[in-house]
Design brief:
The chain has about 325 residues and is an alpha/beta fold. The chain folds into two domains: about 5-175 and about 215-240, Rossmann fold (3-Layer(aba) Sandwich), CATH 3.40.50; about 180-215 and about 245-275 and about 290-330, Alpha-Beta Complex (UDP-galactose 4-epimerase, domain 1). About 35% of the residues lie in helices and about 15% in strands. The protein is built from eleven helices and 13 strands. It has helices spanning about 15-25, 85-90, 95-115, 145-165, 190-200, 220-230, 250-255, 280-285, 295-300, 315-320, 325-330, and strands spanning about 5-10, 30-35, 55-60, 75-80, 120-125, 170-175, 175-180, 205-210, 215, 215-220, 240, 250, 260-265. The strands form four sheets. The protein has a seven-stranded parallel sheet, with helices on both faces. α1 links the parallel β1 (about 5-10) and β2. The longest helix has 22 residues, at about 95-115. The protein is globular, with a radius of gyration of 19 Å.
């Protein structure tokens, strides 16, 4: 589309990033995806394969330098690229700091050199740690593991570039995003990927603790809309929480998917409840969540075959995969970590 505004989406082949690409195209943007496909999937962008206004740069963000072609003439940059999961971050903290912090710095420098109108950073509710709820943006920061720390330090870099270099930038703090295209491979992690694969295999759902823990699940298309709103606002240097503001129990998720349950030990460093205070986001960005939890789960169930080749976890394999988690995050003698 000649003359259309340009947006860059780092991690644009990933779960949230690919939905961001969809929204931007629907709003008339030309999109440049920056992704090394270490976590993203070409299938997530397959419906854009013949679209000349979606250009993919197969690039590791750690190799970006100012003047990179992907950023030339861009109005907005949406920065999702990075690595997640708790256990791998405990085992490989250098990688997490390298990619999530130094990689972010390289994205910032590219955005600054390009003179973009706004950069929006994907922050994480894990930065708040075992937070009181509902959790506001000014809550104490207390990362419980290296992934959370790396996301917070990336956010600090974003705001530092805003203060020192005048780069217009905001951060969107995502609580529990879910939806179609959520990750199907890799380390033990996202509950939806675990449960949907177990459903297909007719195996019991491995529910942590007693299943009464609450998570502020927010559907991925609502997440993408919040990021666009954070780019279009005149405000800069702000963090905005996004969740549905209506936490759901894991037991409720199991009820909606339908199946047997096997309970496994509760894990240290995980909150009993995540609950985003979205007052600032709704009042200042004019954004509201629109997809009810039941509807969102239904949309995922309609595409359940997407998880047919995902890892099949059971109590034994989860216990083995989370040994490091218990070893490092369990309270130490004297009550300290």
């Amino acid at each position: 589309m000649s003359g259309s505004p340009i947006a860059v989406v780092t991690g644009g082949a990933g779960f949230i990033g690919s939905h961001m690409v969809d929204l931007l195209r629907a709003r008339g943007f030309s999109v440049r995806v920056v992704d090394d496909f270490s976590g993203g999937h070409e299938a997530n962008l397959a419906h854009h394969a013949d679209d000349p206004d979606v250009v993919v740069h197969r690039t590791d963000i750690r190799t970006l330098t100012p003047g990179h072609a992907a950023f030339e003439g861009a109005r907005y940059v949406f920065h999702f690229a990075g690595i997640g999961d708790i256990v791998p971050s405990i085992e490989r903290p250098i990688d997490y700091m390298d990619i999530n912090v130094q990689g972010t710095v390289r994205v910032l420098e590219c955005a600054r050199a390009a003179g973009v109108q706004k950069l929006v950073y994907a922050s994480s509710s894990s930065c708040y740690g075992l937070a009181s709820t509902p959790t506001r943006e000014d809550h104490e920061i207390a990362p419980q593991y290296p992934y959370a720390l790396s996301k917070y330090q990336g956010e600090q870099a974003v705001f530092h570039w805003h203060r020192v270099y005048g780069l217009p930038a905001n951060a969107v703090c995502i609580f529990n995003a879910y939806g179609t295209r959520v990750r199907t491979t890799g380390a033990y992690g996202a509950v939806f990927g675990v449960f949907l694969r177990q459903k297909l295999a007719q195996q019991p759902f491995t529910v942590v603790g007693d299943g009464t823990q609450l998570r502020d699940f927010i559907y991925v298309t609502d997440v993408a809309r919040a990021f666009l709103a954070a780019a279009e606002t005149q405000e800069s240097g702000e963090r905005y929480n996004i969740g549905a503001g209506n936490p759901q129990s894991i037991n409720r998720l199991v009820e909606l998917i339908g199946g047997r349950v096997q309970y496994i030990p509760k894990r240290p460093g995980e909150p009993d409840c995540t609950f985003a205070d979205i007052t600032k986001t709704t009042s200042r960005l004019g954004w509201r969540p629109t997809v009810p939890f039941e509807e969102g789960v239904g949309l995922m169930m309609a595409e359940i075959e997407h998880w047919a080749n995902a890892p099949l976890w059971d109590a034994g394999s989860i216990a083995e995969a989370t040994k490091t988690w218990f070893a490092y995050l369990a309270p130490k003698e004297g009550g300290s970590r």
